[in-house]
Design a protein that fits this description.
about 20% strand; Sacchrp_dh_NADP-bd; seven-stranded parallel sheet; Saccharopine dehydrogenase; seven-stranded mixed sheet; Saccharopine_DH-like_oxidrdct; about 425 residues; Rossmann fold; NAD(P)-bd_dom_sf; alpha/beta
């Protein structure tokens, strides 16, 4: 029996980074939805942790407080050994994340984070996948708006096609249909750190351009030709239901698509050997929609290209003065008004067409993300009979796809699949 399966851990879930903006939101969600779970809060400052706990209401007043700091690995080791699951909001992960992954992999402790940093995930795979698999740890990256809607809509399509016996998934397209909300300071910091590393290292740029960056075995992947991350086109090229609409580049397509392709590989290519996946965002059907789609795509390409080549020439302090601050976020009213709806279309090997539609109320980068991360932690801690048998560096769908599908309705997450023909 692995350490992670033992029942002598003091906590079920530790929220690491609980004094940060999204960390506090996640703690608030767990205080409301985590009945039956033994939860602790962790961070660098006892005083700040006390203030967070006092703000959470009666349900959280007996939650233990743990002092842990990425600069002191021994504190992370002790934290990981005390719990079944660590959920962490402490980024940028390339800068701060590896010591915690190392601690969880060594202790056989499950882990969930919010990273959209592809190079960080690749490094975790290279350094810790085997150890985590040996100790029984599930290290699950990308458990927020990036990349659960992407990963779970495709997983739901796969389950529908499997149920109907309509073959493997083929051409599959994720489309952001509506989105209202801001971008967190943590997300901006993570993307800046990723681009900075790419600007300094040609090998990092090569990895970012590879559609199978996160695959367990690059040589085993099918050669399906170009799978561009930034494209603009008519919606009807994706599905007849999108006739009249235009779509352009979606800013988070690069990390999300790599996560989804890793899920397929981890699940033994259950989605199919001819599975192709792309992400876009709808710009509507107005007269100006094609221009907006084209500009969004061109802007995405230019930003990625310029930042990955020249960001290392910009002093870190100069960027930190103008970009959103880590640990900050919008007002509660703004968070409540936010929302998103995404649609993922697929055509199977027998010609069956399906649509998965997923939506949440709440700012995608803040409120919605805190729900998704909180439910991921609860699934890992409490729904172990519904989790996959996989261990190591995993994706949300590969680790806990069925558990999350079961949890979504009660959490206010709508995910429905319909057959279109």
């Amino acid at each position: 029996m692995s350490a992670n399966e033992a029942h002598d851990r003091e906590h079920d879930i530790v929220v690491y980074g609980a004094t940060g903006f999204v960390g506090k939101l996640t703690a608030q969600y767990l205080a409301a939805a985590g009945a039956g779970a033994r939860i602790a809060l962790a961070g660098r400052s006892t005083d700040r942790l006390l203030a967070v706990r006092e703000s959470l209401g009666e349900a959280a007043q007996d939650w233990p407080l743990l002092v842990a700091d990425a600069s002191q690995p021994s504190t992370l080791n002790a934290m990981a050994a005390s719990t079944r699951v660590v959920i962490t909001t402490v980024g940028p992960y390339l800068r701060y994340g590896l010591p915690l992954v190392a601690a969880c992999a060594a202790a056989g402790t499950d882990y969930a984070d919010l990273t959209g940093e592809t190079l960080f995930v690749r490094e975790c795979i290279d350094l810790y996948h085997k150890q985590a698999a040996d100790t029984g740890a599930r290290i699950v990256h990308a458990c927020g708006f990036d990349s659960i809607p992407s990963d779970m809509t495709v997983f739901a399509l796969y389950r529908a096609a499997e149920r109907d016996r309509t073959g493997e998934l083929g051409d599959t397209n994720f489309v952001v249909r509506s989105f209202a909300g801001g971008v967190s300071g943590g997300t901006v910091a993570s993307m800046t750190e990723l681009a900075r590393q790419a600007s300094q290292d040609p090998e990092a740029r090569r990895l970012l351009n590879d559609p199978y960056t996160l695959t367990p075995d690059r040589a085993a992947e099918p050669e399906l030709g170009a799978q561009p991350d930034a494209r603009w086109r008519r919606g009807r090229e994706i599905a007849p239901e999108l006739d009249g609409y235009w779509v352009g580049a979606f800013a988070m397509a690069l990390p999300n698509t790599r996560v989804v392709r890793r899920s397929n590989a981890l699940l033994g290519y259950a989605y199919g050997r001819r599975f192709e996946y792309a992400e876009q965002m709808s710009t509507g059907r107005s007269v100006g929609a094609p221009l907006v789609a084209a500009m969004a795509t061109a802007g995405n390409v230019a930003t990625m290209e310029l930042s990955s080549r020249f960001l290392d020439r910009v002093p870190r302090g100069a960027l930190e003065r103008i970009l959103p601050k880590v640990g900050t976020g919008p007002s509660e009213q703004t968070r409540e008004r936010g929302h998103y709806t995404v649609e993922t279309y697929t055509t199977t090997s027998t010609g069956a067409r399906y649509l998965a539609r997923m939506s949440q109320q709440g700012d995608p980068g803040y409120k919605a993300t805190s729900v998704l991360l909180g439910e991921s932690g609860l699934a890992l801690a409490l729904d172990r009979d519904k989790l996959s048998d996989l261990r190591g560096i995993l994706t949300p769908a590969a680790a806990m796809g069925d558990a999350l599908l079961a949890r979504f309705p009660a959490a206010g997450v709508s995910l429905d699949v319909s057959r279109l023909n």
